[in-house]
Specification:
The protein has about 325 residues and is mostly helical. About 75% of the residues lie in helices and about 0% in strands. Helix 2 runs antiparallel to helix 3.
């Protein structure tokens, strides 16, 4: 049997499209509740915006213009009223923003559980029952998945900080010595400081897959992801980078379309006093598109992870069966 090899990034993406082509209905059923919850988290922002616009129009409608004779003494100007207080406080909207990020992280867990069942060929009789089975599989894994996501974030922050400090010192030295004027006089110099964070992120990229598909928890999942990267870090990093770039490109196009739609529907929402509903529907469509594209890249990452696991297993088996790796009893030892 031919050994397993890493494929091109676009082959993984094409395979993900083919894999999910016959499972559109399941994907929609499991994504829509999360997208609806994330959109509801953004609804208070829309209500605050609507309230602010209404108050602004009411204040501007009450203003008048009049001519004052020059002989009449001027009255002291009254201070202009400040902006109206929002309907929902800032701490509440920020809490909902964090909750929307948590829902986005939970999306990857649900998609991983769904793809695990799809690969195994398991299917419930109806779509609703299949979605319930997927969520029943995901809910017990949620605490361990959240812990791995938190550890990924902490390790990425700490690791990138440890790697950025030497680079920042070199950057400061180059700045004051003027050895690289073009480099230090542009914002790209500071952008290069984010590269260490990407390296650490790639090291831990497959920890979530290790939990769902191999049952590895906590630090074991992170260490397993690190072990898979040994000897092939840059090959895997280029593929992960392509995944992120293509996904951000899709989201950029979607964001552009929805911004244009919001600009067209915004005046209609203001005139009909339904700007909150308009913003909610636009946000819901944007979240659905973002979550749908994210599902494809999660599946592509799983394909890459499974190839890495297969390669690591083949290398381990080759070491075990290599000459001199095990002691074989001699044929005349019993004589």
């Amino acid at each position: 049997m031919a050994p397993t090899r890493l494929k091109s990034s676009f082959i993984y993406l094409a395979n993900a499209v083919n894999d999910l082509r016959g499972n559109w209905a399941i994907l929609a059923v499991i994504i829509v509740p999360l997208a609806l919850a994330a959109s509801l988290c953004l609804l208070p922002d829309a209500l605050n915006l609507q309230h602010q616009l209404v108050q602004t129009f009411e204040n501007s409608a009450g203003q008048t213009i009049s001519y004052i004779p020059a002989q009449v003494p001027l009255h002291p100007e009254r201070p202009e009223p400040g902006p109206p207080p929002p309907l929902y406080p800032v701490w509440f909207t920020r809490f909902l923003h964090v909750l929307s990020l948590v829902i986005t992280v939970a999306l990857s867990l649900v998609v991983l559980c769904a793809w695990q069942r799809m690969q195994a060929g398991m299917r419930a009789p109806s779509l609703i029952s299949e979605a319930l089975v997927i969520y029943r599989r995901a809910i017990p894994l949620a605490p361990a998945f959240a812990l791995i996501a938190l550890l990924q974030l902490l390790v990425t922050i700490v690791g990138s900080a440890l790697l950025v400090v030497p680079g920042f010192l070199v950057y400061v030295w180059l700045y004051y010595t003027r050895y690289m004027v073009v480099f230090v006089d542009r914002p790209v110099g500071f952008a290069m400081l984010a590269v260490p964070g990407f390296f650490v992120y790639v090291w831990l990229y497959f920890a979530r897959c290790a939990l769902v598909f191999d049952g590895r928890h906590s630090w074991h999942a992170l260490l397993f992801s690190r072990d898979l990267m040994r000897g092939r870090f840059f090959k895997v990093a280029t593929r992960v980078l392509v995944f992120l770039v293509v996904w951000s490109g899709y989201n950029s196009w979607a964001a552009t379309v929805f911004v244009i739609v919001s600009l067209l529907l915004g005046p209609v929402g203001v005139m009909t006093n339904s700007i909150a509903a308009t913003i909610f529907m636009i946000g819901l469509l944007f979240v659905v598109v973002t979550y749908s594209t994210a599902a494809f890249f999660v599946v592509a990452g799983v394909r890459l992870y499974q190839d890495l696991v297969a390669i690591a297993s083949e290398e381990a088996a080759a070491k075990v069966h290599a000459p001199g790796s095990a002691t074989v009893p001699l044929s005349g030892a019993s004589a």
